[in-house]
């Protein structure tokens, strides 16, 4: 599903280069749930952004379903994001003035899906996450766990193969965190690949495999 080959990322600062990701090699299979752990500044979120086509590599290759995404232009990367990836964030990133169902509809609007189909798919996805009865609620009317369920529904509604989650349980208590992890586990049983960036060892230990980042390098590589 996903393969990284000698991936490097640096940022230019005046005439210098600041290395952030160094010589990363990684293979993640379909239906796997993996966690990327490490201290703040270790490069794990940058690595997730590279995998999700939110940023470009400085050198090396990232292959998604045998497609070299590191060679795509900005339009190609945007298209791949819309087709292949769903994103979940710690802060939920919901639109405060929109209901749960309207938030879930947003990715489909960008994809040009007609309104009737958008509503049907949004309702079905919310129902799958036990949020159908709160579809007209606004984010302020939902608990943190409920908001994250809406955010996951939004990530799933375009039927991506890969879910990228950056600290998805960081703002949740342990009960809600466990429920969110159970949702991710169920998604892998459906064949989806889930990649989680986390500081929490209790979250990481629920994954199939754990990758540890340190100072931009993958430990043990």
What does the model show?
The protein is of the alpha/beta class. The protein has one domain: Rossmann fold (3-Layer(aba) Sandwich), CATH 3.40.50. The chain has 7 helices and 10 strands. A 6-stranded mixed beta sheet has the order 6-7-8-3-9-10, with helices on both faces. A 4-stranded antiparallel beta sheet has the order 2-1-4-5. Strand 1 and strand 2 (16-28) form a beta hairpin. Helix 3 (100-110) packs across helix 4 (115-128), helix 3 (100-110) packs parallel to helix 5 and helix 4 packs across helix 5 (144-156). Residues 2-221 form the ABC transporter domain. Belongs to the ABC transporter superfamily. It holds the Pfam family ABC_tran.
Tag the structure with descriptive keywords.
Rossmann fold; 221 residues; 7 helices; four-stranded antiparallel sheet; six-stranded mixed sheet
Helix share, percent: 25-40%
| Total domain units | 1
CATH topology label: Rossmann fold
Structural category: alpha/beta
Poorly predicted tracts of residues: none
Global shape: globular
Neighbour order of strands in the largest sheet: 6-7-8-3-9-10
Total of DSSP H or I helical runs spanning 4+ residues: 7
Annotated CATH architecture:
3-Layer(aba) Sandwich
Oligomer type: single chain
**Range of strand content:** 25-35%
Nearest-angstrom radius of gyration? 17 Å
The CATH superfamily label reads P-loop containing nucleotide triphosphate hydrolases
How would you sum up the major sheet?
6 strands, mixed
Beta strand count = 10
The ordered H/E elements are EEEHEEHEHHHEHEHEE
| CATH class group | Alpha Beta
pLDDT averaged over residues = 93
Distance between the termini: 20 Å
């Amino acid at each position: 599903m996903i393969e990284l080959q000698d991936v490097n990322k640096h940022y230019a600062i005046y005439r210098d280069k600041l290395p952030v990701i160094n010589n990363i090699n990684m293979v993640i299979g379909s239906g796997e749930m993996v966690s990327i752990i490490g201290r703040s500044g270790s490069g794990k979120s940058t690595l997730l952004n590279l995998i999700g086509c939110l940023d470009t590599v400085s050198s090396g290759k990232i292959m998604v379903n045998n497609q070299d995404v590191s060679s795509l232009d900005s339009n190609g990367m945007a298209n791949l994001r819309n087709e292949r990836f769903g994103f979940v964030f710690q802060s939920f990133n919901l639109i405060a003035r929109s209901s749960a169902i309207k938030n879930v509809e947003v990715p489909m609007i960008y994809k040009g899906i007609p309104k009737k189909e958008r509503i049907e798919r949004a309702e079905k996805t919310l129902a799958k996450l036990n949020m159908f009865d709160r579809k007209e609620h606004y984010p302020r009317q939902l608990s943190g766990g409920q908001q994250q369920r809406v955010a996951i529904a939004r990530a799933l509604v375009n039927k991506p193969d890969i879910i990228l989650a950056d600290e998805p349980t960081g703002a949740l208590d342990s009960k809600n965190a466990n429920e969110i992890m159970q949702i991710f586990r169920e998604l892998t049983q459906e064949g989806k690949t889930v990649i989680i960036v986390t500081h929490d060892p209790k979250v990481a230990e629920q994954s199939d495999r754990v990758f540890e980042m340190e100072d931009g390098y993958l430990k043990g590589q």
